[in-house]
# Entry
Amino acid sequence: MSTESIFQTHLVLGYAAWLLCFGAYILPWLTSMDRVKAHRAIATLHSFRFFGLVFLLPGVVGPNLPASFATFAAYGDLAAGLLAMLALVTIRIRQVFWPFVVAFNLAGMGDLILDYYHAIQAGLPARAGDFGAAYAIPIIYVPLLTITHVFAFYLLLRPQPRAAQVLAGKTAVS
# Structure
């Protein structure tokens, strides 16, 4: 099997495994709580994205990992992780919390999409060994990040229940 085929198989199976896990365990757990707690749990997971800086560490990644991919992926992850941390720090100030939730999800999902683009442009699937010890990030961590971003957008975009609108003071007084 070619390096590209192994990498693509790992990537597809990474998404499949996380979708099964998400559907069986994480989705029921997140939907059992209110929106703020669900976004808090998602932000907590994404706060670890500072780990993406590992793409810049010689000896962890191979010397031939393209800088066009590594630099953007490292700093995009760092930005998303810091925004997620800011959301967590501001959870008690809802007027600040929600913009940070939106910001870390937009920045994080944008980062992942652009990382896929840069990886394809650099031919990384055929050179997956250049990830070195960081190989697990795109195979194990990125699928979970992507799935949780999609669910976070779903939560942000779905209509709020009427009772929640009343509690938030968003309904007109008759």
User: Anything to note?
Assistant: The mean pLDDT is 93. The CA atoms of residues 87 and 95 lie 11 Å apart. DSSP finds six helices and no strands in the chain. The helical segments are 3-31, 35-46, 67-89, 94-121, 136-157, 162-168.
